[in-house]
């Protein structure tokens, strides 16, 4: 479902800083893949390329058989909303809107019917245990609740691929466990494909495959068995 072929990214034409060097990576449908590596190693750059927020300097990113770099900006915005779900560390929610307004925002942008939106909203809120929060404003809920809302918003379009950047980065132990449990359910029960950047060994323990990136290169790939052993590595 995702193919990254010989992808390089160079920032700043003048300074020529190479953030990614000839990356090859394939992600199959239904995989739960972690990306780990030191700060500055290129994780966000890679996620931005996959998330179609940025384009590679060379090489190809192919998502669901399409090459986002070839789409015009209107097609790209639609592609992003329909095919991808984003879950960020700082939640990226609109603080002055309510929980339900935030969740249905991607559908509103597509001009979806209210009856359809309400139905989808209720199903997803129920599944993520946030039905009681729908009328609250984002500013009034906890970090763990906000991350559930972010996951709900990422899911509302039933995206093929969920991209998560440090989803437990701002959460306490209990909320981290809840959020990772949700992502695990989405992966196992709904067959969502998940790609997650994380520094958190606990979050990484949920991934079946972890790729390590260092100085813009993929240096190692490991597979974990089903047991949840805490995962510690350099
Ligand atoms: P990570 O997510 O692993 O911390 P990043 O992908 O954010 O790493 O950054 C990789 C390298 O690319 C870093 O050295 C960073 O400073 C540089 N970089 C990231 N974004 C830009 C940019 N827009 N312009 C120039 N350099 C950048
Ligand atoms: P993280 O470590 O969480 O990935 P960063 O602080 O590295 O976040 O980067 C935050 C944002 O700043 C990213 O969008 C990245 O592309 C951009 N950025 C990082 N380094 C540079 C840089 N040297 N020049 C310009 N933009 C940068």
TrEMBL record:
Keyword vocabulary terms for this entry: Amino-acid transport, ATP-binding, Nucleotide-binding, Transport
SMART domains, alphabetized: AAA
Any one GO molecular function term: ATP binding
Entries under InterPro entries matching the protein: AAA+_ATPase, ABC_transporter-like_ATP-bd, ABC_transporter-like_CS, MacB-like_ATP-bd, P-loop_NTPase
GO cellular component: membrane protein complex
Residue span(s) of domain ABC transporter: 2-234
GO biological process: amino acid transport
Membership in a protein family: Belongs to the ABC transporter superfamily.
Protein name: ABC transporter ATP-binding protein
Organism from which the protein derives: Vagococcus silagei
Lineage of source species: Bacteria, Bacillati, Bacillota, Bacilli, Lactobacillales
């Amino acid at each position: 479902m995702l193919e990254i072929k010989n992808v390089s990214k160079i920032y700043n034409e003048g300074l020529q800083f190479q953030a990614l060097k000839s990356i090859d990576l394939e992600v199959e449908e239904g995989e739960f893949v972690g990306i780990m590596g030191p700060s500055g190693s290129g994780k966000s750059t890679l996620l931005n390329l996959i998330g179609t927020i940025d384009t590679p300097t060379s090489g190809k990113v192919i998502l669901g058989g399409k090459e986002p770099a070839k789409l015009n900006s209107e097609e790209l915005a639609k592609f992003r909303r329909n095919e991808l779900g984003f879950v960020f560390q700082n939640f990226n929610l609109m603080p002055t809107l309510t929980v339900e307004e935030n969740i249905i925002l991607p559908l509103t942008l597509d001009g979806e019917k209210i009856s359809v939106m309400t139905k989808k909203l209720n199903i997803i809120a129920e599944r993520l245990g946030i039905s009681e929060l729908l009328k609250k404003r984002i500013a009034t809920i906890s970090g763990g609740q906000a991350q559930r809302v972010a996951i709900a918003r990422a899911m509302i379009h039933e995206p093929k691929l969920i991209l998560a950047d440090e989803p437990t980065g701002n959460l306490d132990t209990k909320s981290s466990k809840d959020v990772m449990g949700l992502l695990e359910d989405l992966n196992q029960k709904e067959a969502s494909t998940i790609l997650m950047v994380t520094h958190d060994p606990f979050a990484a323990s949920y991934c079946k495959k972890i790729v390590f990136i260092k100085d813009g290169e993929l240096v190692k790939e490991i597979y974990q068995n089903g047991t949840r052993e805490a995962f510690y590595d350099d």
